[in-house]
């Protein structure tokens, strides 16, 4: 069994911490480098409370990104959007492949970049990059930067993909996503007092995940489909819940929708398709897991599709490891299934 040497960039952040927690017990990846600018010289375990009582403890020390040295089979990058492009040349001297969860290489179209990713405009063209959704995409052996989708984008994509693929909907799809506070990262200025006992709009219509969702609609169907999207802030730490309202084409029945979802997801180990049975997708049962729960309701020519994920896992660290498993020919679920999924109550 091959064991691959890996590094983590941005290891002191929320996503970096989850990458470290999962990769440090993955049987085929061995973490040998973890970057932090502010914690260089500190034991990685000291900064992540998940390690307080953990027996498996790799005892690695953070180093600055500039100190990245030697060769790694791959690097997981959890840096803020805009940072990796500035460091790409340096990082690629030490690895042939990067699994990237930031927004940097999701688009090459300058109009999209200027509008949604202004920090990535000047540098995004440098890389041989590949946008990769584990359930939808094929491995591209030439790719040097494998880009994972945005967390709210991927949950929204799971909600509409079967409908788009089978050309079941038309006109306009309205999507809203509610997200927990860890989605904003460790350095978010919002305090617990700001967030708790509240529910509010985060961003309407102009969110950067809109073009990703729209691109899926255009990639998998020739039907013109307008996508509207808004994101809301929940007062929980982790979790994303997406509701997508679409209009079914004339003659499309509930059984067609059921078949489309079943066919799209039946062989996908991390998609739990609950059909139209109550209670459908929930946050509690995906918390701390790499699962996406997917369900729908059809009524009078309309479809409401629902998805729940854990933003730090299926929306970031978990899907990056899932992608790496697929890229290295390792069984897709390796290192991502634990004995305690779906904790209840
Ligand atoms: N949070 C989510 O739910 C989520 C979901 C999907 C994708 N993402 C993406 O994942 C990435 C990380 O998100 P996060 O939530 O983990 O953010 P975070 O908690 O803010 O962590 C980012 C880490 O990067 C380091 N960093 C910041 N600026 C740097 C620079 N100029 N050079 C080198 N390192 C720098 C930080 O500080 P130190 O180096 O000082 O430790 C920190 O440890 C982002 O691109 C985000 O968009 C996040």
UniProtKB/TrEMBL annotation:
Oxidoreductase keyword on record: yes
Alphabetical UniProt keywords: Amino-acid biosynthesis, Arginine biosynthesis, Cytoplasm, NADP, Oxidoreductase
Residues at the active site: 151
Catalytic activity: N-acetyl-L-glutamate 5-semialdehyde + phosphate + NADP(+) = N-acetyl-L-glutamyl 5-phosphate + NADPH + H(+)
Subcellular location: Cytoplasm
Sample GO molecular function, one term: N-acetyl-gamma-glutamyl-phosphate reductase activity
Primary location recorded for the protein, binned into one broad class: cytoplasm
Residue ranges constituting the Semialdehyde dehydrogenase NAD-binding domain according to the UniProt record: 5-143
SUPFAM superfamilies hit by this protein: Glyceraldehyde-3-phosphate dehydrogenase-like, C-terminal domain, NAD(P)-binding Rossmann-fold domains
CDD domains: AGPR_1_N
Function summary: Catalyzes the NADPH-dependent reduction of N-acetyl-5-glutamyl phosphate to yield N-acetyl-L-glutamate 5-semialdehyde.
Record family assignment: Belongs to the NAGSA dehydrogenase family. Type 1 subfamily.
Name the record gives this protein: N-acetyl-gamma-glutamyl-phosphate reductase
Species this chain originates from: Paenibacillus wenxiniae
């Amino acid at each position: 069994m091959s064991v691959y040497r890996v590094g983590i960039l941005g290891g002191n952040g929320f996503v970096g911490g989850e990458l470290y927690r999962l990769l440090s017990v993955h049987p085929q990846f061995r973490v040998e480098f973890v970057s932090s600018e502010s914690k260089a010289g500190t034991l990685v375990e000291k900064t992540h409370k998940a390690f307080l009582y953990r027996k498996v403890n790799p005892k690695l020390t953070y180093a600055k990104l500039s100190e990245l040295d030697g060769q790694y089979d791959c690097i997981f990058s959890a840096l803020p959007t805009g940072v990796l492009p500035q460091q790409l040349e340096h990082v690629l001297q030490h690895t042939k492949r990067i699994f990237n969860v930031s927004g940097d290489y999701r688009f090459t179209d300058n109009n999209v970049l200027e509008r949604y990713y202004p920090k990535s405009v000047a540098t995004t063209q440098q890389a041989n990059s590949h946008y990769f959704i584990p359930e939808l995409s094929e491995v591209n052996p030439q790719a040097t930067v494998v880009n994972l989708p945005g967390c709210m984008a991927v949950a929204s994509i799971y909600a509409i993909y079967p409908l788009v693929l089978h050309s079941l909907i038309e006109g306009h799809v309205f999507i809203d996503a509610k997200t927990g506070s860890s989605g904003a990262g460790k350095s978010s200025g919002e305090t617990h007092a700001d967030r708790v006992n509240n529910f509010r709009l985060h961003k309407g219509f102009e969110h950067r995940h809109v073009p990703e969702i729209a691109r899926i609609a255009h990639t998998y169907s020739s039907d013109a489909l307008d996508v509207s999207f808004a994101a809301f802030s929940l007062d929980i730490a982790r979790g994303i819940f997406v509701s997508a309202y679409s209009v079914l084409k004339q003659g499309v029945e509930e059984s067609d929708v059921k078949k489309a979802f079943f066919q799209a997801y039946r062989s996908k180990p991390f998609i739990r398709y609950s059909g139209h049975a109550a209670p459908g997708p929930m946050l509690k049962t995906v918390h701390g897991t790499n699962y996406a729960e997917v369900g729908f309701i059809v009524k009078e020519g309309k479809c409401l599709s629902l998805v729940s994920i854990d933003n730090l896992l299926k929306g970031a660290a978990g899907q990056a490891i899932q992608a790496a498993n697929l890229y290295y020919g390792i069984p897709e679920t390796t290192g991502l299934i634990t004995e305690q999924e779906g904790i209840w109550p």
